[in-house]
Every structure is written in structure tokens, then in C-alpha cells.
Amino acid sequence: MFVKLYRKIRRNKRDIAGLVWTSLAVFFIFMMVYHPIVVFEGAAEGLKVWWEIIFPSLLPFFVASELLMKLGFVHFLGILLDPIMRPLFNVPGFGGFVLVMGLVGGSPTNGLLISELREKQLCTRSEAERLLCFTSFATPLFMISAVAVGMLGCPELGIIIAGSHYLANIIIGLGLRFYKHNEAGTYFDSDSISIKRALIAMVLYQRQQKQTIGKLLNDAVTSSVLKLLNIGGFIILFAVIVRVFAQLSLLGLISSGFAVLLVPLGFSAEIVSSIASGLFETTIGSTTASEAAVTELQKVISIGFMLGWGGLSVHAQVASMVAKTDIGMRMFFVTRIVHAFLAAGLTWLLYPSNQHIINFTLPAIASTSRFYSYSTPRVILYFFLLAFSFLLLLVLSAIILQWGKQILRRVQARKNKYF
Predict the structure, then answer these.
(1) Cβ count within 10 A of residue 67
(2) What is the pLDDT of residue 268?
(3) 289 in Cβ contact with 304 (< 8 Å)
(4) Is pLDDT larger for residue 191 or for residue 397?
(5) Of 348, 352, 261, whose CA–CA distance to 302 is shortest?
(6) What is the pLDDT of residues 119-151, one digit of tens each?
(7) b or e along 256-293 (b: 16 or more beta carbons within 10 Å of the residue's beta carbon)?
(8) What is the model's pLDDT at position 360?
(9) Is 394's pLDDT higher than 80?
């Protein structure tokens, strides 16, 4: 009967996706009734992660980024950073702010900022998609402190994990500059770029807004808390999904699929099951990988792979941030796969082959182990200073590059005059 009824309905490709999601929703409700304890434990675990880690670490970055957007600081940076962001990544100078905040704040901070840039028509759709793909990072706090120190008990590995993660994303960004490069973009007049013009642009934007600092701060805090509640919902949901999948042994089936590819390469079956968990939530996958009875190299490569992928939980959070815009997620999903394999390969290349190399790098990161015991306000302040340093470095690089272009033009003008 259902088959005959379905044949009478005018079919569309979109109907299949709707039916699949409906079936999954019904199945999820059924599991809530049939395994209430598993669902409750998963929800409690997700809530704990969100309240103790995500909320205090991301709220300051969300509020600060919202304030800087509303105060026109991105207009200031957009003009200054265009000479360096455009030739490297084929995105406007506004992307420099997103890149830095993504480096220190992680995902989905980049999705929040890119959606606001797109809503204000400060970048085209292709530029926004390009920017979204290479600014999705794991936070350095998680990679260096939680993973290297807390899980692996080896601070030296933090530089390898974070270095391969960042380098892989930068390589993707350089490659994506050719993605839809013929489309019209957001350009500035490079001959008139200066600090004075950037300041004027920021002041003019503030005059147009005509809002008091109290109103701006209230809007920034309210918007940030609402977005974090949304993120918390996704974290709890995927924590429950992982528990349900484990209860139904579905993770075992996913692990079997990965085992076909990874076991011939020398990976242990135990580490493969950790990667299967990391497909949904990188925190859970990284924890189980660090506890697996395998070699340290396998642990580091697996964690690098999972951090590059980011987890379906983070993908859903980023998608929710850009849902109100016309930014597509297909290229983002593809580049997360590329990032996972590229980060794993770079981790393998950067991993020291003997203990002497580890000892050589130890003095440069000796403070990492102490960093893990710092209080949350101190860690947040540290990353704000780190973000400011990155921004300052980008601005100085753009100014130096602009001065170099002006000098070359003057030299060329003199050559044309006398010769």
C-alpha cells in the first residue's frame, strides 16, 4: 500500500533527503524510549563538556568578535590587510580578522564571523565559501593542553599536532585561491591603502551605527549567549548519538569499514575504533585514542586525522552559523576530508624519528606543561594577546608589502623618465 501511494506522489530528489531525515528522527525518538539511561548519560556528558569547556572558552571570543564587528574594526582591517590576503588566499582583507580569530578561537567562531561578513555584503559568496574552508581550526588550548599534555602526557607533541593542523589548513587556503577565481570579488584600491584611510572607514561606520557602547555590549552578549546555547544543543545531541551508536554496535560497523583501509597500512584495530568515534566528536575520539594500547606514532597520527576532520558535531555548528546566508557547505565538507588526510600526513612527516630531536625542541615549549594548570581567565587573556599579536603581524606584513610596491613603482617611474 505504501509503495503504491509513493508511486502516485510526484517524486523529487529532495523528497529522498526529507524521508531519510524523518526516519532518523523517528528512530531517535524510539531509542530515547527504549534506552533512556543511555540517552540520559550521553546528554549529561555533552552538557558537562559544553558547560565546563566550550562555554567559558568561546564566550569571550564571541563577545569580543561581535563588538569588533559592530564597532567597524573589520573595516579598518579590511583595508589594511587586503594587500596580503588577496594575493595569498584570494579573499578580501576582512578575511585576515576571521583567520586570526579562527586560529585562536577555533570553530565555529569562523562561521559566526563569515556569516556576518556575508550578511553585510563585505564579501561575495565564493569568497565566503573559500574563507570558511581554510579558517576552520581546532583551538590551540585543546591541541596543546588537553591533547598533548592532558591525554598523551607529552608536551612536546603539542607542537607537532598543532603545527601540522595549522600548516594543512594554510596549504588548503593557498590552493583554494584558484577556486572560482574568475568571479568578481570585493576589491579595494590598492594604490590608496593607508592607515589613515582605514581609520576614516572605521570612524564613518561608527557614525552610521549611532549606538551607545551600552547598547552594543548588550547586543553582543545576548547574541553570543544565544549562539552558544545553539552550540550546546549540537554538542549534547551528538554526545547522545555516539552513545546510542555504541549501544547498537554501529560504531563497530563503521570501524570495520575503516579497518579495511587502515589495518593494511599498519594501524591497530583498537585505534581504528577511536577514529570511528572521532568522526562524530573529536574530544571523545581523541580521548579513546590516547588510551589505546598502540604506539605513540599511531596515536598522534590518528588524533591529527580527527582534528583535521573536526567532527560532525562541529560541522553542524558551523552549518547553523551560516544557515541564514547563501554560503554552501559542500566545499567545506570536501576540504575537511582533505584537511584530515593532509594533517595526518604532515603529522607523520613532522614526528621525530629519535629522542634527540624531541629533546632539541623541548626548551622552546617547556612552559606548555605549566600552561595546562592555568586558570580559565588567564588562559583566555593569553589567547587574546595571541590574537592581537597575530593581527599585528598581519598588519605589519601588509604595510611592508605596500611600501615595497610603492618603492618599486617609484624606481620604475625614474627608469622610464631617464631611459
Answers:
(1) 17
(2) 80
(3) no
(4) 397
(5) 348
(6) 888 888 888 999 999 999 888 777 877 788 888
(7) eebbeebeeeebbeebbbbbbbbbbbbbbbbbbbbebe
(8) 32
(9) no
